[in-house]
Amino acid sequence: MDRHVPFEALHNFRDLGGYRVGDGGRRIRAGALYRSDSLGKLAAGTADWDRFLALGVGTVIDLRYPWEIAGRGRVPEHPSFAYHNLSIEHRPYDQPSLGAEVDPGPFLAERFMEVAEDGVKEIRRALELVAGAAETRTPLVFHCASGKDRTGQLAALVLGLLGADAATITEDFSLTELAAPALLAEWRARNEGRSPAWPAYGRAPESVMRLFLGALAERHGSVGGYVRQALGMDAEDLAATLRDHLLEPVPTDRPPLAYRRAVPDDAASLVRLRDTAALWQLARGIRQWLPGEKDAEHFRHRMREGEVWFALSGGRPAGAWELWWDDPAAWGPRPPDAGYIHRLMTVPHTAPPGTGRRMLAEAEARIAAVGRTFARLDCLADNPRLRGYYEAAGYRVVGEQPGKQDGAGGSPYAVTLLEKRLTG
Q1: Helical spans, DSSP H, in 6-118
Q2: Are residues 295 and 262 in the same domain?
Q3: Do residues 86 and 137 both lie within one domain?
Q4: What is the pTM of this model?
């Protein structure tokens, strides 16, 4: 599931549905809560407008300053929804003009704490509206300008009350990274092609939300403590209302996985899947991948030189992997006795349980079908969690490669080499 809902004018409109909460037995309902960049970019009579109305939104919360709305417009009026302007930020600052030396993590986390202290009246009302929409099972969307900071802060509070853990809240914040190039291009278009002075403009590194959640916990104990102490609300009652009306059981009857070979037109989707998986990892302290490391040409090249496969659940992508027929960078010169599995990735939160293991089995079957004896793969030498996953799937460590270099100009890094005998 790609959380970004496609619009022409909006770049960061996302569904909060699908996140698992608590012990993992329940998840947020899809189509109930949305977060977005400015809905002032919508225009009546357009395909975007029709797409927005089709979502059945009954409440729009605009978190921007009134002067932002005066300058950039608001969502067009329509009888199907109520509009509320709740400016939760009280101390404006100019992100594009910040200096390159400003670290976005601590800087934005401090701004978020200011908002948490200043905007208690508006945040309280926003949470009341979210609860009211939940009780009537009417979809709600909240937004600011880019859908990152003010929107991310309200999303963090709602997700925390619903029982999402800190890693999931952090991941949700960082998904703006997928929209950052489009948000930056939009800013440049408004500013005669100039670039912002701050290199971090439009970015959403996981450190921002991690530091904010840490500061909130230090001051109030938890999201619920903040809601109770700073907002003066009954946090337990509010959380119960949200959970009763916005959560659903995780389905247990999943359709069996199907597989299809990727084609060049799939390259952009594969980039997005990989970057989404990278953000999931980073939010959990795993630095196996970084967003933006692989572009569409990488995947097209792998299709020409080997194979790339999708796993599908109910016709939608649940994961993907690459299959190579040699890998000299990691394994050196070898006889043609193996297939090399790379970039095994699942769709976070929505892939059926066990998807990764089943994709491994499918890749192994493909290797065996062409008469090769071994399945081989590698993982970063400092990622014991992933190494353990592969060992549990029947792979054994056969060596280390201290200086693997992935692509021209890349920096060498150490990997653990693992292999599995498929026949004999």
Answers
A1: 47-54, 66-72, 104-118
A2: yes
A3: yes
A4: 0.94
Identity of the amino acid at 55: L
**Three-class secondary structure of residue 111 per DSSP:** helix
Residues (pLDDT < 50) of the chain are none
CA 255 to chain centre: 24
Domain that includes residue 101, residue range? 14-249
Contact between 119 and 88 under an 8 Å Cβ cutoff? The reply is: yes
Residue pLDDT, tens place only, 197-221: 999 999 999 999 999 999 999 999 9
What's residue 417's pLDDT?
Answer: 96
Q: Are 21 and 162 in contact (CB under 8 A)?
A: yes
**Two structure tokens written together for 8:** 């022409």
Q: How far apart are the C-alpha atoms of 184 and 202, rounded to whole Å?
A: 6
Residue 316 lies in a domain: yes
The domain boundary, picked from 249, 273, 292, lies at 249
Each residue of 266-295: pLDDT tens digit?
Answer: 999 999 999 999 999 999 988 888 999 999
Task: Evaluate whether residue 225 is within a structural domain.
Answer: yes
Count of domains observed in the chain: 2
